[in-house]
């Protein structure tokens, strides 16, 4: 069944409602959705789960099967040995092929092998130690006893064939035919087949959404019997009574799903989160944008790599990934929801849109809503104590990242809502839901938030802890927040106060005091605060959270300029579009990246396995470099002011080639030069010989709004002007994942050019990378991703400001090639989160990384390299 084409997979009753009149949600309107959810359950079972690879198991199985095949050969007494070496070699090859086939069949369909072993033993018993002699005699022979034995042997073979056929037919029926029937068969009477019957409505209903419940009969794998279980859907519906919008589906069978997220026309569209009810296996569905410039299909690559002559195309996709419990073979699963549209067409549409200013990135951005944004922009599904007429509630964050820069405080995902107060001070308050006291039939809301506001206005700092944020580092630190010309001892004061929003009536001394507090609370509760009555989290005075960027309005662009960041993944060679999306989706799902980071995949013509040199030539061409520059420019025009780049394998060669050719000039913001030092000379006897070279130290240029600059910084914004889309975009982080690029070229040219734009560079390298080994063999040059110990110092002795992470010691979720595991290894996923989201350098990640000094063959120090603090997978407690 072509599962990736969900429109054709829908049951006819779901795809064609047949009426435009409003239909009340009921069991009948939910039957097509129920069939699709059962199909998802069957599909997971059919594809199966990943199992632990056991070398001993495969060796043991091979020995057993080899002995079994030898036993069959011994039983064939008339079999003559080959008289020549070619014939003997052919027999050996055929025997190996038969063993391989039997091993595969025994792993996938074990019962087929079991029936074969049983039939062989029966034949040996019937024919007295042989397999074929008695069968060859035939019925017409004069030896009557032998005729009976031959007949018995033939019956055994016939029965074996029937049993094997029934077994294979059963597997095909359950794994292929039955899922198709469940999803698409018009003749299937669902109510009769699953014995569906209505269930009494629950006592507690959601105050904001409708609820539909029913029960059906399903197979229980634990008790090996049929049992009745309930199914419920709570959420939004369309006019045909189908799930549409925010909703939660709960199937109480063992492998049924509890799925919460966004639905469309009766199907889970994503983003959503799901978990099997009995097993605990969990899944995430998220959305990723893509930029493509190749003629390849979305799901495959061609040997003749070619750039699309029509230029770039933009689109978006959803990707569902396993995140907990057992992982399934068919996941990650990518589905294109926004077909690639040529940039030229999008640009023409943008020019024709006179009502709302738009850009070419409007189309992919319109799809990139996240699970957090989708859930928080609506009332709670579980119900609410306040009036259901409030359609939306403003979200509150549970965690906030505060970054200090040379140009002030920066909070990703937030924008200043006012221009008063100290720009170097941020007040973060914890908000509780209000306590309710019932007097008669009216809820009484008691709010003490006014007391907190009065204390804040008086400047008291004694109500909570105060965190001092230094704005300077030691000379030559090289971090993204380094400021060498700041005043000594300057700090930014971050006050974190704890003010609960509610208080119980018992805390007041008298009824009059409670009434006064209630009156003050009622006067201060405006419309915005009423929408927050059922929420908990953190709020920031003077800042508002940026959410629900749909890419269609000018305000969405302004919001992106304020707090949204782009994460661009450039894949390696032999990587189709869907594969790159799946790899990035798995990383984001396991890492739980925040919603203000919008992911994109840049898909270039990467050729096939045998087209390495073709991919290298096309990828490093000027046309691909121009397309990459155009893509970054479109992100800048869409309002993004910070971009993070993850480049893997040959993707590093593509990006660095465009960098050397100067295609990023004017696109990425250049860092400000704060010091030129050309007097660094070598010292006799030093471990590290530093030769004369001009050393340039930079300071980050942080994009901010012109009206929000602190007074001590003046009115100049340097090279960036926050709201001006023509200004360059900041390259916040640049991460090299097992890069397939020349080591010497990076040391001599690439690093020095890249340091002009980016202050936070990270390299993940593996000495045992098999793919890069073959790359070095073909190109006869050292690869950057295979030599972590020679990268810390440049060719003339300068210290390179690159965090070098050696992943050679990692051995969990890593295949034998050791080239593509950044999205599965837990240590690496968490480390990438710290790099991209928190902006932490390697020396700040002491809880995960251990630094060590490496030495060259001459005995001199090569520099500092980091390794992960983890034990090998084979080390266990005794």
TrEMBL record:
Key words of the record: Membrane, Transmembrane, Transmembrane helix
Stretches that traverse the bilayer: 58-76, 82-103, 108-126, 155-178
Keyword Membrane appears in the UniProt entry: yes
Keyword Hydrolase: no
Region described as Disordered: spans on this chain: 1-21, 454-489, 504-529
Pfam families: DUF900
Chain intervals with Low complexity compositional bias: 454-464, 474-483
Domain of life according to the entry: Eukaryota
Annotated Basic and acidic residues bias: 508-528
Protein's name in the database: Uncharacterized protein
Species the sequence originates in: Dissophora globulifera
